[in-house]
Amino acid sequence: xxxxxxxEFEVSAVKLVSEQGYSIGDxxxxxxxxxxxxxxxxxxxxxxxxxxxxxxxxxxxxxxSDPTGARGMWTKSRDLYxxxxxxxxxxxxxxxxxxxxx
Length: 102
Fold this sequence. Notes:
Serine Threonine Protein Phosphatase 5, Tetratricopeptide repeat, flat, 5 helices, mainly alpha
């Protein structure tokens, strides 16, 4: 008997594909999948997933030498982690922001 559709499963699959794309240098594919994961997490109201997706999008933009775009994504990530009370991730993402050129 087939399993019922699960958005959580879809999010997991999208995140896996996006990480694979990033690891092999397919930044366009990675960005598209991270944006899809963000869209799904937003629909589901998963703030932690949204924070992770924004962080990953920032990584893609940094890899593309777009510090302004990376800063914007990482700021959204940091703010969501702060809202969730995850100080460890707030500090980690702030460290990424602090290393960007002014």
